[in-house]
Design a protein that fits this description.
Radius of gyration: 15 Å
Shape: elongated
Structural class: mainly alpha
Helix content: over 70%
CATH topology: de novo design (two linked rop proteins)
Strand content: under 5%
CATH superfamily: 23S rRNA-intervening sequence
Number of helices: 4
Order of helices and strands: HHHH
């Protein structure tokens, strides 16, 4: 079992992706900084933050699972925002597509981790 949320693969991936996405979001036009840029940054931050908060409640299995589900939902939201960016900003299509694919992989890992916690987590 992980001794810290920092030991969780889903945390490590979500943190690295958040940093990359945060930097990427500022490549959009200035007027998007507080529109779509803000939305994609907040949803990516929510993926990572919900993993951390859920781990903090790991003694309560249902709470842990609830926050992991929130993280998964925020991951889906992030993917949707990236798909919008791909379509709206052709100069950012390649990078948005790459990030979207990585968030898609993270979503699969989160799903499997939720199943693992559901089936195996001892409190």
């Amino acid at each position: 079992m992980a001794k810290s949320y920092k030991d969780l693969e889903v945390y490590q991936i979500s943190f690295d992706l958040f940093v990359r996405l945060h930097r990427f979001s500022f490549k959009m036009p200035k007027y998007e900084t507080y529109e779509l840029g803000s939305q994609v940054r907040r949803s990516a931050d929510s993926v990572n933050s919900n993993i951390v908060e859920g781990y903090g409640r790991r003694s309560y299995k249902k709470d842990f699972i609830k926050f992991l589900i929130y993280a998964h939902a925020s991951n889906d939201e992030t993917i949707n925002h990236l798909k919008k960016i791909e379509k709206i900003y052709p100069n950012l299509t390649k990078e948005a597509y790459e990030l979207r694919n990585e968030y898609d992989l993270l979503g699969k890992k989160l799903y499997r981790f939720i199943e693992y916690v559901t089936d195996n987590w001892k409190t």
